[in-house]
């Protein structure tokens, strides 16, 4: 540790820390533009100048290491004058168009010019003009505002792993952009907007929509993947206008995937905003009373073993638990939340969780990825793996389709499950890397279980983890990666077949008398028997709604209070940011009312009562904003059945931008799908 004096305050900081970090430890604010805690040090904006005793001139604190006995001054006359001069230079070519800039009110340049700048500038020559660059349908550029801090270049290269941004030219001719004009090929491009300290990179969908002080801000959770990203939903009136990430070091740090960030315009398109009933072969609008009367008339007296329910991938845990309660009240064992047909062993919670935790990636030293395209399934988790790989402490191997670009170097072991066996028996060379590892990890993609040999793959992945010491009292290296935010919560709620119950495929093929679809949009509705009475409850008129006999309009995730469980088992609450449109209602309220219509005692009338019932059924729901962490004390694996198949693993998400019902209703995501699925250099910027 080094002892440093900052403005008369003596503190101790680790050896190798920078002067800027020492100043922050002493609670001194240091202005900066190029410096960012999660990026490499560039030292090119010079705004962070401080005075160091016996130094001949001000030093850039972000790039200057501390020394024992150093004395630093952050507010001397030399420092104030130096910062004023630096700010004057930064504003030489800036257009000063704050009144029309989307960054206005949230701009670091604006704030620091006010706090640290002078009273005016002496530059009277013509300002330079820079042509705007095309970075894709999500990020809007106004490059006249760029101060060349290079945060965007470093983020694209270091975090996103796509070195497509850079600087060309020198001096006044220097410009930031893609070398060949094209859309950035990353699922994390929206984070460029957050880290840009000026208005050079802004959100294209949000352009000229609102000012920050007009917005109502609500903390919530992104459910469009299973990471559990902490987000802030900004609304104006009855509309979501922006979604931003919140900092959570254990989950998403401060990053967010593009689909969750930009698909919010799908919340106002193709919405179900009132009940519908099918009469004479056609759907017509109805009241809630008529809808429940139709359900009661068709389902009353139907035997329990002729009624089934399927839950979708975006449902909150309260809705899944309430629907399970309703079905059990009807004496039906037919409930399932695995639309993809994944063979998941729910006899123990660690059989279906990302047990190492997302933060646990920072400790891993060897990783095997089985049947997962992490870049599409969980971009933020993939970025965390890249960060660990960039440190040089992680070796990564992959079993799955050859040629996947995960943004970091992987050793391809094979395309099918036979490669798992070759690791277990030690015949593959990567087995030696696993044997030497102190913290080995296995990440099993959920799609690897949606095969005929799914149970055998699950058991083999567990055995692989156990064989190389990944299951111990202080480390749990087995990780199942889910795809959407409602999948783990439904498993925790027990929304699985009861004794003698049918799974999704069985319900679709069995010709049940009644089938309740709770946001289940990923099944093939053509497989439902023509004589089955179908109740569809959801928020979008997507694939399954057209097959319904009764449609009950529910609420999307920003429109209700809901519990969501991430792939690592972290229980988090989403908050009500705006009310659902029209006559749509929260899903658990709809199910409770349906229970009353069917004379089923639900046992709850309020959200608090429902959550109390959930905690009684599964105590994991009581650990809000946390997860049950720890090692593995019982290494007994899931039950294996059958043999490993010879077919290759496949990527489950064919189109990242249209992977769920909200995104499929989004014009922004449709544009992204068109651009990124037909990549071609763009000759002119939009």
Automatic annotation (TrEMBL):
Enzyme Commission designation: 7.1.1.-
The 4Fe-4S Mo/W bis-MGD-type domain, residue ranges: 215-271
Keywords linked to the UniProt accession: 2Fe-2S, 4Fe-4S, Iron, Iron-sulfur, Metal-binding, NAD, Quinone, Translocase
InterPro entries cross-referenced by the UniProt entry: 2Fe-2S_ferredoxin-like_sf, 2Fe-2S_ferredoxin-type, Mopterin_OxRdtase, Mopterin_OxRdtase_4Fe-4S_dom, NADH_UbQ_OxRdtase_75kDa_su_CS, NADH_UbQ_OxRdtase_ferredoxin, NADH_UbQ_OxRdtase_Gsu, NADH_UbQ_OxRdtase_Gsu_4Fe4S-bd
Reactions this protein catalyses: a quinone + NADH + 5 H(+)(in) = a quinol + NAD(+) + 4 H(+)(out)
Family per record: Belongs to the complex I 75 kDa subunit family.
UniProt-recorded name of the protein: NADH-quinone oxidoreductase
Gene name as annotated: nuoG
